[in-house]
Amino acid sequence: MIAIVDYQAGNLASVKKAFDHLGYESAITADPAAIARADKIVLPGVGNFEATTALSGTLREAVVKAIDGQVPLLGICLGMQWMFESSREAPQLRGLSLFAGECEKFPAAVKSPHVGWNQLWVTGASRLLRALPQDSFVYFTHSYRAPVVEATVGKCEYGGPFSAVVERGQLFGVQFHPEKSGTTGLQLLRNFCEL
Predict the structure, then answer these.
(1) What is the pTM of this model?
(2) Distance between CA atoms of 88 and 128, rounded to whole angstroms?
């Protein structure tokens, strides 16, 4: 079963509908025990980094324990940003520090938020991105971006390059919304389910 973590940060139903469409069992849950039993965990999210405050206490512990147990984790948008050390959007909060670096706002030279379709440049070997064509278009909506790091396997260009996909071991993060990215997004979610 795929646990879709509910921390009141949006887009849960559309993520679940995507898994339903693909024929994979998933459940939206805020129950740490259900997260601990899951075969895979998805951490979606829309909004301000402040929303990750809800990912504290027993919820955070359940996610960290699953990560320690090598359960595959997919962070989507805000969920991916929480996998980094921090964000300038809410500097008082700490992320999971699974990936080094701080998320930052887009430069003033470009319109923010970055909303709409943009090209994904695959930059490294990736299980999550297998069978996806180079320069596929995916759907973004965000005002802050993650830096390009060693674990970056997919980049996007908007006011400079940023991490669109990170991957290391059983940890996966995407800045875009696969559940809103048509056949490309569905293929990515299928790849995650088949890990």
Answers:
(1) 0.96
(2) 28
